[in-house]
Write a structure and sequence with these properties.
By secondary structure, the chain is of the alpha+beta class. The chain has a single domain, classed as RutC-like (60s Ribosomal Protein L30, Chain: A), CATH 3.30.1330. Helices cover 27% and strands 22% of the residues. The chain has three helices and five strands; from the N terminus they run αββαβαββ. The protein has a five-stranded mixed beta sheet with strand order 1-2-5-3-4. A hairpin with a 2-residue loop joins β1 and β2. It starts with 24 loop residues before the first helix and ends with a strand. The N terminus is likely disordered.
Length: 176
């Protein structure tokens, strides 16, 4: 039986990706959660995205960029951006941070512990749910790293962020 041009062929399961064999358990877990690592965004200034000092790795503030664009994550919480969208933006910041970590260290399972996050949330006057927004990042890290993903944190409200982003997060990881 021939399909009409407007009929869709039933989707067949994708064959296993041979590259999956090379993924560490953390990256496999992210993929199973439908959070593949993005391509690393271009730095927007004169800084290094990742810096190791002894057994600590500092990841510079990450914006919720995907394909070097903010897309739906441009604006302020309490005006153009909902708390739920802000949480998704915080997750994207975290995926970008993990992509930078993997780029520099090769494997995500080299993270022994998530030490601290500092999250900045651009919001309108009177917006007080910064902590709920940054929970998007915190919850993802705990889901992926378990107890080692629990961390100290600050959630700070600001009026503006680079490129008009709604969220920016910086990270400190302890490495093996």
């Amino acid at each position: 039986m021939k399909l009409k041009t407007d009929e869709k062929k039933p989707e067949e399961p994708a064959p296993p990706d041979p590259a999956d064999k090379n993924l560490d358990p953390i990256e496999k877990k992210l993929r199973s959660m439908l959070h593949p690592l993005p391509k690393i965004p271009q730095p927007l200034g004169s800084y290094v995205p990742v810096l190791r000092v002894a057994n600590l790795v500092f990841v510079s503030g990450q914006l919720p960029l995907a394909n070097n664009a903010l897309g739906a994550y441009k604006g302020r919480l309490g005006k153009e951006i909902s708390v739920e969208a802000g949480q998704r933006a915080a997750k994207q910041c975290t995926l970008n941070a993990l992509a930078f970590f993997k780029h520099d260290f090769g494997r995500l399972d080299k993270i022994k512990r998530v030490v601290k996050l500092t999250g900045y949330v651009a919001g309108m006057p009177g917006f007080h749910d910064q902590a709920k927004v940054i929970n998007g990042a915190s919850d993802l890290l705990v889901e992926v790293y378990g107890d080692s993903g629990k961390h100290a944190r600050a959630s700070v409200g600001v009026t503006d962020l680079p490129m008009g982003a709604c969220v920016e997060i910086e990270y400190i990881f302890e490495v093996r």
